[in-house]
Give the backbone structure.
Amino acid sequence: MPKILILNGPNLNLLGTREPEIYGSDTLSDVKDRCIETAQKHNIDIDFRQSNHEGDLVTWIQEAIGVIDGIIINAAAYTHTSIAIHDALKMLNCPIIEVHFSDISSRESFRLHSYIEPLATKVIKGKGTQGYVEAIGTLAETLNPS
Ligand code: DQA
């Protein structure tokens, strides 16, 4: 069974209570449940994680080299700042999908630049939890072609 890593960055642990008018009312646990449900339908194994620490995300990406078949990453604020996450992702030889709950292209100017986008096979933004569901579906098409 193909294996996908789903990584979530800082402050996403507070999803549901954090600025719900921007990020929606689903909690991260709701998002995880939707991802598990979607992955089961596509016969994909997922590993869903969150950290507030850049180094954790870098280490998890390094540990995934040669182990996973695809990655979905919402690096949250690190999207706009982290060369370390960019460099780690560059070593992963698998499809990368960048996901954001909000539409980062229509918010503050400091959210316009993403260090992940140049490495991503697809960027999904502004679709809330559904964006994760779509990302799993996209990876499934490549990993489990019927
Ligand atoms: C976010 C957008 C980022 O700009 C922000 O820093 C986040 C969440 C999103 O999912 O919309 O923390 O990645």
